[in-house]
Amino acid sequence: MIFYTPVQIVASVVYANDNSTAHTDPTVKGCTNRICSQKQRFQLLRSHCEKNPQLKDSYDEEDSHTYYRLLVDDKHKLLYCALPKAASTTFYNMFYYSYTGKFLEDIHCRQCWEDQGILSHFSKSERDKRLRDYYKIMVVRHPLDRLISCWNGKFTRQYRHPTWLQNGPRMIEMFRELQGNTTLKEEIKKGASFNEFVRYANYLEATEGEDHNRHWRPHHRLCHPCSIEYDLIVKVETMQEDSKAVLYKLGLNQSEFPLINARRTGESETLNLEKTLMEYADIGDEDMRRIHEIYDHDMQLSGYEWDGDEYRARCGAPCNQNGCC
């Protein structure tokens, strides 16, 4: 069994560095688990950073590319690390709406944000000032769930999207055995299996000169939480609550974003912090071990767990350990 247990701390929800936003404390369906306070989340993150100083190696403050995932909101003095496949579309819309009063017509409109600001486009002195003075938000998601979301969104059929064009045909050519008179071109039209995608990610991790696409790159290599001092950690699993602090900062109200978390169970004060991911049932032991290694730091930084016997992803400890997410 592959199983991680985060620091066991339970308290009411109070958002760090923002005393004006205190919220209710929903419980997990059928459990006593609760949403961790921001203080608890940062304690866990900083503890893991201190034990693993190598996590700062991917951060180069002199290289502007380090900051290419940090979106700048000068109007509200906010920075947001846009982690792909972690509710980034929702957040794009929230920030864009707060600026313009309109929703994005194209949810993948990179130019819309380039017009407002990406931190990598600023000079070092301007970057440093914003990193020092602005309120910084990071959104995370269970990495093994995020990996499935990436596969579903980018590789289950033939796309014209750059992520598919650069990676899809290549992974199928590398890992699929052609049957009978079937051609590679015909196989590519079918899309990639999840098993092929996992093997491809493992290959990229192990091969010098290769790197992961941003859509599945570990979040600690994109948002650099051990080097940048964030003020708010939002979890996709608890976005209905966590996003209230963001909406407050943007001067918006929740009625304008009523369906902010697709994981909502429909029960007003209940959150579902466990999810069975049967896609991993077909992954071999060695490939599972290697993919887990890729995202191990992401899991420990944010208190995520994986039960390899039941293919269950958890935010926080299992029910009988009275943990929090």
UniProtKB/TrEMBL annotation:
Pfam families: Sulfotransfer_2 (PF03567). It is a single-pass type II membrane protein. Its EC number is 2.8.2.-. GO terms for cellular component: Golgi membrane. Its main location: Golgi. GO terms for molecular function: sulfotransferase activity. GO terms for biological process: carbohydrate biosynthetic process. This is Carbohydrate sulfotransferase. InterPro entries: Carb_sulfotrans_8-10, P-loop_NTPase, Sulfotransferase. It is found in: Golgi apparatus membrane. Keywords: Carbohydrate metabolism, Glycoprotein, Golgi apparatus, Membrane, Signal-anchor, Transferase, Transmembrane, Transmembrane helix. The keyword Ligase does not apply. It comes from Capitella teleta (Polychaete worm). The keyword Transferase applies. Belongs to the sulfotransferase 2 family.
